[in-house]
Hints:
Blueprint: H1 3-18, H2 26-41, H3 71-84
Helix pairs in contact: 1-2
Amino acid sequence: MDHFQTSIRERAYALWERDGRAPGRDEHYWRMAEQELAEQARPTVIEAPVETVAAKPVRKPAARKPATKSAAAKTVAEVAEAVAKPAPRRRRAAAAGENITTH
């Protein structure tokens, strides 16, 4: 037995088992296996239509922007700056009986 016949026999057996080992269908599975293996052996050539596509112009990469601080780095910097500054002076509350004048 040659290699092709052995392959057919093995594939037919696999198909027969897959379908629940139906009795009396050996020729059916043999033909199915022959067709499958013949299709696999045939070289498939798919010719796609050739289309001409205009090449896109090549763009220069954009100039890089100068590095900026991230949001987290800005927040840390703001907190550090706020801690370093003295607190603004508060006005003294008016004592009872004092007259407050505004301009």
